[in-house]
């Protein structure tokens, strides 16, 4: 089973949808993150969970 590193943050409701999309695209392109979950609350705030796979390097002789 794969192990993942999780990053969670909250996005303000005043931030436009396009800005949020650019933010997530930058995290994906430059940081190797993928969207695990996005939850939007009635007050307009969004909670975002990003994940990326932990790669374990094995020693070679």
TrEMBL record:
Pfam family name, one: DUF5703
UniProt lineage: Bacteria, Bacillati, Actinomycetota, Actinomycetes, Propionibacteriales
UniProt name for this protein: DUF5703 family protein
InterPro entries: DUF5703
Origin: domain of life: Bacteria
